Amino acid sequence: MNTQEIANRLVDLCRKGQNALAQVELYDDDIVSIESHLSRYRKTKGISKVQRKTAMFFERAETIHKYEITDPLVVDNHICFKMIVDVDIRGLGRVYLEELCVYHLKDGKIVKEEFFYNTSGMNQE
Known about the structure:
- The chain is of the alpha+beta class.
- 28% of the residues lie in helices and 46% in strands.
- The chain contains 3 helices and 7 strands, in the order H-H-E-E-H-E-E-E-E-E.
- Helix 1 (3-15) packs antiparallel against helix 2 (19-26) and helix 2 runs antiparallel to helix 3 (47-60).
- The chain is globular, with a radius of gyration of 14 Å.
- The relative contact order is 0.20.
- The mean pLDDT is 91.
């Protein structure tokens, strides 16, 4: 698959809530995931750890009020899209985030993902 095809597949799976399948199909085993500087998961390395981090988010999600992903933008070996998440998270309360999600590809696999967001939407009641 080329970068545009990977971008389309990633967005399609994520829109369906099949993030775990996207990771299995599209991620490199040595994936690096970078979160906000305030996250305890600032940098996660390796497919199993990234999969666990994603699973933990969805396990803690009690009610998803909104989950939207824009169409992807592709430049060379990079994909980005905006994700909007409005969710009640056990232990945190209601969280509203607008994220810029950026993915770096190498040899047809996602080798790095970075999430840029304003944490002011955390602990929103």
